[in-house]
Amino acid sequence: MVEESFEKDNAEIALLLSVLFFHNTGNQEPRNLERIVRMNENFARNSLANADQYSIEKTALLINMIGTVYRDLAQNMSKAQEFHQLALDLSERYNLKNEKATSLHLLGIIHRYQKNLDKAQTCHEEAVELGRQIFSPKENGRVAAFLLNLAVVYNRLGEFRKALEIYQETLKLLREAYGSRDQRVARVLNTLSTCYYSLGKYHESVDALLEALSIHEEIHGDYHPNVAQTLYVLGFTYRAKGDLQKSLQMLSRSL
């Protein structure tokens, strides 16, 4: 069915089927994965070569999707970078601001994985700046995703105060977009706690972790990896505060 969609030049159906395939199989069928990636790649290159016959924006979207597949499933960062750069070039050529912001964001992630933190910072800063210009308040979740990855880079660079400011803004936007009890909010709280910890702000770190724990338990129940991981980090944070009794309680609960 995926092959038929490509043969009929139906990009939207092909995209959907490809996403479903990746979601359902992951790395379990590497031969099929390579086949689907190859079809996506051929279709994208053909679309790019015949730009007047296809939607340029959908082509840029497809090219970025191929890049994320190479990154997440194939673990091939050089190929992922190639496709995200191709999408960025296409977006700049045709002034596709949404896809340009997305391409910069995805390139930043690749540079971070490759430990090119300065390049990652530049890409993420440009993505955030552009995202603030083009996305409406209803799209705060997209800006939050851009901000989150910029904060991660600052954290890796040891610029914890800058990272802290951005994590806090990310939280604000996520709460506005999805509510205060969303899983995305909990994940950022977990990450924010490590930033507080690095700054020696153990009390604030504990508060962030306790809020994250409450959300994880509400969503997943008592027995879930997210709950266990948060309890584990809480145990070590309480120990850093000097509260050994609570540290032991949390570490015991995490088992």
Automatic annotation (TrEMBL):
Keyword ATP-binding attached: no
UniProt cross-references to SUPFAM superfamilies, sorted A to Z: TPR-like
Any Pfam family hit: TPR_10
Gene3D superfamilies in the record: Tetratricopeptide repeat domain
Keyword Repeat: yes
Assigned keywords, A-Z: Repeat, TPR repeat
Entries under PANTHER family matching the protein: NEPHROCYSTIN-3, TETRATRICOPEPTIDE REPEAT PROTEIN (AFU_ORTHOLOGUE AFUA_6G03870)
Protein name in the entry: Tetratricopeptide repeat
Naturally occurring in which organism (per UniProt): Paramuricea clavata (Red gorgonian)
